[in-house]
Design a protein that fits this description.
Radius of gyration: 32 Å
Shape: elongated
Strand order of the largest sheet: 14-24-23-16-17-18-19-15
Number of strands: 33
Mean pLDDT: 90
Length: about 900
């Protein structure tokens, strides 16, 4: 007989290893309870219960009984009963998924208050105002989250009371005003829903749990999961916890109360020390929402020194235990400190590298563990340009540097407008008084986020840091008017929607207009190999270790000597793709036109002879830049009509001309003759080389003569010749025979032996499926995963991305675009089959990838597992690819935090 599924665990029953079942928050609460930290007791409803609810629309039959049993145990521990009239137990109900999703799901505080228990709560606590403030919060949260009332209606009612009294914040409303607000809120709920706010505490709890389950499929949660690539089927846990109150006023016997969020290190820069925000006389949601400007955590040392010291001790214990940056939410209830939550903290890219480096230097983690804790995506963000400090001038305003970086865009004042303008191709900066979870789509669409309220732990700051978005919070000098769609500075400058601003997330400043950019310190250090400062030291150290442990080589996609020089400076170990067709553009296009328009072999040969010295010079310069390293040169791949003028433009020009140009007429005839319904699958690649006499021979001769020249100059050229778009071994054999013939000719003419490996691109499904046969005549394989993805999926990338891809991404057909990250189940399976088959024929056959997947972190990990020898990507992505190749060699043996 199978053991019944357990759906509820008390905090004392769990541990950090149970994050999949208890969610990250529940596992953290359980772990802190196990460590003996002051955690208000409670219990967790598991993610398994949520999965059942989401699948069936009903809670598991056993869940009600298990919650009742856990609640009874909590009541015994606390010595109070939920919602009792005299001395009520109150609880919070919070979501808690396996992976942190800050603010994306629901929280309801003060469950258990009703018209009777509010009076008992006020009497026992000796604070009528805090009691009615808590009741007001419950009715407002429950009405919006559980009963579906528009949250703006509650805010409008509160604003009306503030205006009538002439006060600026909710904190200044008296107990009498809050009592009136509760009545208004209940009337509002009745009007909007047709039912009363529930007075039964058990009903409040049951409905709150279901609301948290439902919030897993809320729009903002789905948007966030898609943005962060979090699986849709994990579900959320629900944490039910005894309330503690930071909004209790002081008495003669007790100190004041407050709430806050603290980090063991600065999540923006990684600097050592206690960082965070503290808000006296408040509840936790006030800090996160940013509705009141919090104090720096250092101010808590003056207000409540004993609790400050105790908090520091707990934070040091947690960082030592988790061996990473931790953040905690805490409440001080009249001098007693409570820890409400902990997790491995979200951080900026700069902080990630500095913290990993410092923990390694401190001996807390190994070099391998430190490398696994940073990522290529974070390194790429550090390479982005920064504003030129010499041209910044006086800022419009200053705020808190919540997430570093530089961003320029048009000001918008709501999420919908940010999404609309971004979809139209415009860069925008989202400006809000404070953000809420409903602003997530706009935050994703924006280049930067600017708020006039909130601190480093506000919703805007936490979410922006997690997404790598530039963010400045708490710019209190700005008067933001979302209705008039403008903000005003203290000097009287008015910035309207659509005006351009520059946001410096590193300095915490906002500037009018578009500031000039300059290379980042990290970018300069990566090209030079040296740099100053803690951040560059951390980055260079991580890369050095990645280079030491990685198996995959990293090469560059480079078509010019300039690109080759930069790629080598950034650590490229050769060129994995040199696209020769890019050398036919610009002024050389006329020579290609002459070859295409040639009426006989003589004219075609003349055109090719004119191209030969130009190609030879190109290859010579590239081989010089990569001296001693492999340079894989792909013979011409695109169809020839791509080098001709646009068909419609030519036709219009000829139709409008009084005396039509004969050359234009010939060009149009050639365009008409070469027109294909589907050129991607037409006369291109190896087919073109076999069909156009002399074209392949000219390119091979140019390569061979460039190698000879470099050898005579004392160089060590390592040219590799790649035949594109092979679908059958017979094509490769024909192309190889022609290539070997020309190489032999040049070797004989120059008296110089030539060793140029000849390989092919695997970019058709048939080539992958017959890779064993193709390997018999190839010296190497390079997977062209861009075209392999198109031909495997049966789609055109340009057409698909412009039409149905957004729909597919929204509906979950794609978790991520298969052109952004390799489709491991389909395209990846073809790669694995081809590598295995090729190595059965020739165990030493070199394999690599030259599509832009070669620079994608997830794809690099797959290519490592598939056994490829190298990845190749654009020069800018090389440092990140080096880092990820190192991480790929370690992730199977080194644990890393799931909450990062």
């Amino acid at each position: 007989m199978s053991t019944p599924t357990k759906y509820v665990y008390t905090f004392a029953e769990g541990s950090r290893e149970m994050a999949g079942l208890l969610g990250g928050k529940g596992a953290g609460l359980a772990e802190m309870t196990r460590l003996g930290l002051p955690v208000p007791p409670g219990f967790t409803v598991t993610t398994e219960a949520c999965k059942v609810y989401l699948a069936t629309g009903e809670e598991p039959p056993e869940l009600g009984v298990e919650i009742a049993r856990a609640l009874a145990g909590l009541e015994d521990t606390m010595g109070r009963t939920l919602g009792a009239a005299a001395d009520p137990l109150l609880v919070s109900v919070r979501s808690g998924a396996r992976f942190s999703m800050p603010g994306m799901m629901e929280t309801i505080l003060d469950i258990g208050l009703n018209d009777e228990s509010v009076a008992g709560f006020a009497k026992v606590r000796g604070d009528e105002r805090s009691a009615w403030d808590s009741y007001r919060r419950l009715v407002q949260m429950f009405g919006h989250t559980v009963m579906g009332v528009d949250g703006d209606l509650f805010e409008e009612a509160i604003a009306g009371h503030r205006t009538a009294l002439g006060v600026a914040s909710d904190h200044e409303l008296s107990a009498t005003e809050l009592t009136a607000l509760v009545t208004e809120f209940k009337d509002l709920i009745r009007k909007e829903t047709g039912e009363d706010f529930p007075q039964d505490p058990a009903e409040q709890l049951a409905r709150a749990v279901r609301a948290v389950f439902d919030s897993w499929n809320g729009e903002r949660a789905r948007v966030y999961r898609h943005r962060e690539h979090i699986p849709e089927d994990l579900g959320t846990a629900v944490n039910v916890q005894a309330m503690v109150f930071g909004n209790l006023g002081p008495t003669a016997a007790f100190k004041s109360s407050g709430t806050g969020v603290a980090f063991t290190r600065d999540p923006a820069t990684g600097a050592r020390g206690l960082y965070g925000d503290y808000l006296p006389d408040a509840q936790g949601e006030d800090v996160v929402a940013g509705v009141r400007d919090a104090l720096p955590i250092s101010e808590m040392k003056k207000l409540d020194p004993r609790s400050y010291v105790e908090l520091g001790d707990h934070l040091r214990m947690l960082e030592g235990h988790y061996q990473d940056l931790c953040d905690v939410e805490f409440t001080v209830e009249r001098g007693r400190l409570w820890i409400l939550q902990t997790r491995v903290g979200k951080r900026t890219a700069e902080a990630a590298f500095r913290i990993a480096h410092d923990l390694r230097e401190e001996g807390t983690v190994t070099a391998d563990e430190a490398l696994v804790r940073v990522s290529g995506a974070e390194l790429t963000r550090l390479m982005f340009p920064r504003f030129d400090a010499r041209a910044t001038g006086a800022p419009l305003a200053r705020g808190i540097s919540a997430s570093p970086g530089a961003a320029v865009g048009a000001v918008v004042f709501d999420s919908a407008e940010a999404v609309r303008r971004s979809a139209a191709g415009e860069k925008v900066v989202l400006v809000r008084r404070e953000t809420t979870p409903d602003d997530l789509p706009g935050m994703i669409a924006a280049q930067a986020v600017l708020t006039s309220r909130g601190g480093k732990t506000s919703h805007a700051a936490v979410v922006a840091r997690g997404m790598g978005k530039v963010c400045v919070c708490g710019a209190e000098e700005l008067a933001v008017d979302p209705v008039a769609r403008r903000f005003t500075t203290p000097s009287g400058t008015v910035v309207h929607e659509g005006d351009t601003v520059s946001v410096d997330g590193t300095a915490g400043t906002v500037h009018l207009g578009a500031l000039p950019l300059t290379a980042s310190d990290v970018g300069r250090a990566l090209e030079s190999g040296t740099g100053e400062g803690a951040l560059t030291e951390a980055v260079l150290g991580a890369l050095a270790h990645a280079d030491a442990v990685r198996r995959l080589q990293v090469r560059a996609n480079a078509d010019t000597p300039e690109d080759a020089v930069r790629a080598r400076a950034l650590g490229a170990q050769g060129i994995g793709l040199c696209r020769t067709e890019h050398m036919f553009l610009g002024e050389r296009r006329t020579l290609i036109e002459a070859m295409i328009l040639a009426h006989d072999d003589t004219a075609r040969e003349q055109a090719l002879n004119a191209l030969l010295p130009l190609q030879r010079a190109d290859f010579t310069a590239i081989l010089e830049a990569m001296d001693g390293l492999p340079v894989t040169i792909r013979l011409i791949d695109p169809p020839l009509h791509e080098f001709l003028p646009d068909r419609t433009g030519l036709a219009v020009r000829l139709a409008q001309a009084v005396h039509p140009d004969l050359h234009d007429r010939e060009l149009l005839d050639a365009v008409e003759r070469m027109h294909e319904q589907n050129p991607m699958l037409g006369l291109r690649g190896v087919r073109l080389g076999l069909a156009v006499p002399g074209l392949m021979a000219m390119q091979v001769r140019a390569i061979a003569e460039a190698v000879v020249r470099r050898l005579r100059d004392g160089g060590r050229p390592r040219a590799e010749i790649m035949i594109p778009l092979v679908g059958t071994v017979e094509e490769l054999r024909l192309a190889r025979a022609e290539t070997e013939r020309v190489l032999a000719e040049v070797a004989a003419e120059s008296g110089t032996p030539l060793d140029c490996p000849i390989g092919t691109m695997i970019e058709l499904p048939r080539a992958a499926l017959t890779a064993g046969r193709i390997a018999e005549d190839a010296d190497f394989f390079s997977f062209g995963t861009n075209d392999l993805t198109q031909t495997t999926w049966g789609l055109s990338r340009d057409d698909a991305e412009a039409s149905f891809f957004p729909l597919y991404l929204d509906k979950g057909v794609f978790a991520v675009s298969p052109f952004e990250s390799i489709d491991q189940e389909g395209v990846g399976r073809l790669v694995e089959l081809a590598v295995t088959a090729a190595h059965e024929v020739d165990p030493g056959l070199e394999t690599g990838v030259c599509g832009e997947h070669g620079g994608d972190p997830q794809s690099i990990h797959f290519f490592h597992r598939a056994g490829l020898d190298y990845v190749s990507c654009s020069p800018f992505r090389i440092p990140a690819a080096r880092l990820e190749a190192g991480r790929a060699a370690l992730v199977t043996t080194t644990d890393t935090s799931e909450t990062r």
